[in-house]
């Protein structure tokens, strides 16, 4: 298993470019199932989850080709409508093929998805919405089977604003008969990006980015060329890396408009944040100050940056309170940060972080994608050597992170195992 070896204490300086957003590219790839014409995606990140989705689409009969950042997909002749367990078990986003397959083919058999163990993330909202659109569902042997001659428009209320639930139902509704309204829809930029792509394919979607999305179904969608938005979570991770090392980093391609809640908290913590057409510049010359955060759906503070922010607060002056409201099991990085000398008390969904003068390098183990990023950040700021194992989690969402941090002056290397 690969490990990252980090010699802490280096101040990060320079420029780094943000790749396309994994969480926007995955639904965009699934949307290729909605048409038999070519779909061209640009600015696709070279991460493991993208390769996993590519293998799944190839299994279904989609032609997948392209270079490092550009993909060409064409679902002209699907060979099957089954997403098997072996291809789905490592990535929860695999559920995104369910809506498009039923919308186009009238049938899908998809294994219940797997992925990082940060919480239940049930698919009941996807299923409830599809049932409202006329899908006959059967859950058997770990698989979801859905059938519908043709989907019909419906009024759907989501109990929570699920991102993948909103995306799945939006894609299904694009080929339904009549009008579909999704209330309490997720407002994330990745949802907006998918709606923009679908509209370019001939869909009629209004309200993306608001709690109410209206989709007028159409008989057929066409091919499209679409550029994926920049990854706000990767950008936020680089911003935290600069702040925690008292560095000075320009993050090119960072979508500042998608990070307002994060950048506001970083400013409150004492970092200097400058947003421009080039990207976001983050610098810090003094010790950070403790700041309280509470995660919530967009436009609130993103749960996917909670662990990275906690790493910052571990070495900030004062006491911070971090409340996690999105996933019930997203403090698994706490035990590993404590191994490095962090002072963190967890009380239910709340972590109380008392900043220490410094962290000490130690062997630590990644438990999920964003937890692994927090351990890397802690290692950058720590005294001595930190060894982060199980970095396959990191590779799911960060492309060549060690190389990009190294270009900024970090002393970090990968040890193959």
Descriptive overview:
The chain is α/β, with parallel strands linked by helices and 417 residues long. 31% of the residues lie in helices and 25% in strands. The chain contains 14 helices and 24 strands. Strands 22-23-1-24 form a 4-stranded mixed beta sheet. It has a 4-stranded mixed beta sheet with strand order 2-15-17-16. Strand 8 and strand 9 form a beta hairpin. The protein is elongated and about 65 Å long. The N and C termini lie close together (4 Å). About 1% of the residues have low confidence.
CATH level 4 superfamily of the largest domain: Enolpyruvate transferase domain
Mean pLDDT: 95
Which stretches are low in confidence, meaning pLDDT under 50 for 5 or more residues running?
Answer: 115-120
- Helix percentage: 25-40%
Total E-strand runs: 24
CATH topology of the largest domain: UDP-n-acetylglucosamine1-carboxyvinyl-transferase, Chain
**Main sheet summary:** 4 strands, mixed
């Amino acid at each position: 298993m690969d490990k990252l070896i980090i010699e802490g204490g280096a101040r990060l300086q320079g420029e780094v470019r943000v790749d396309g957003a994994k969480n926007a590219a995955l639904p965009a790839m699934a949307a290729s199932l909605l048409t038999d014409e070519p779909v061209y995606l640009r600015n696709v990140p070279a991460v493991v989850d993208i390769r996993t989705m590519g293998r799944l689409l190839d299994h279904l009969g989609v032609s997948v080709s392209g270079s490092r950042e550009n993909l060409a997909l064409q679902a002209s002749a699907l060979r099957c409508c089954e997403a098997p367990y072996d291809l789905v078990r490592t990535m929860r986003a695999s559920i995104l093929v369910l809506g498009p397959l039923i919308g186009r083919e009238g049938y899908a058999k998809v294994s219940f998805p797997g992925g990082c163990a940060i919480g239940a993330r049930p698919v009941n909202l996807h299923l409830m919405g599809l049932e409202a659109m006329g899908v006959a569902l059967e859950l058997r042997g770990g698989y979801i089977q859905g059938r519908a001659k043709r989907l019909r428009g419906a009024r759907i209320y989501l109990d929570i604003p699920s991102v993948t639930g909103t995306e799945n139902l939006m894609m299904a509704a694009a080929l339904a008969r009549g009008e579909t309204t999704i209330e309490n829809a997720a407002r994330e930029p990745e949802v907006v990006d998918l709606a923009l792509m679908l509209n370019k394919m001939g869909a009629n979607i209004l309200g993306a980015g608001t709690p109410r999305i209206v989709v007028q179904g159409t008989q057929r969608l066409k091919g499209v060329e679409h550029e994926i938005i920049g990854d706000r979570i990767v950008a936020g991770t680089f911003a935290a890396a600069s702040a925690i090392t008292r560095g000075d980093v320009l993050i090119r391609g960072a979508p500042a408009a998608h990070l307002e809640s994060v950048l506001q908290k970083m400013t409150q913590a004492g970092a200097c944040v400058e947003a421009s057409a080039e990207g976001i510049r983050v610098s810090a010359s003094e010790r950070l100050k403790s700041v309280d955060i509470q995660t919530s759906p967009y436009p609130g503070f993103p749960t996917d940056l909670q662990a990275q922010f906690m790493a910052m607060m571990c070495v900030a002056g004062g006491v911070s309170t971090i409340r996690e409201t999105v996933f019930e099991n997203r403090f698994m990085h706490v035990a590993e940060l404590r191994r490095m000398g962090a002072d963190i008390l967890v009380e239910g969904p709340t972590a109380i972080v008392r900043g220490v003068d410094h962290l000490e390098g130690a062997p630590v183990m990644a438990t999920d994608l964003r937890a692994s990023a927090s351990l890397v950040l802690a290692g950058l700021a720590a005294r001595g050597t930190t060894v982060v194992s199980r970095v396959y989690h990191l590779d799911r969402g960060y492309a060549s992170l060690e190389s990009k941090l190294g270009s900024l002056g970090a002393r970090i290397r990968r040890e193959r195992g």
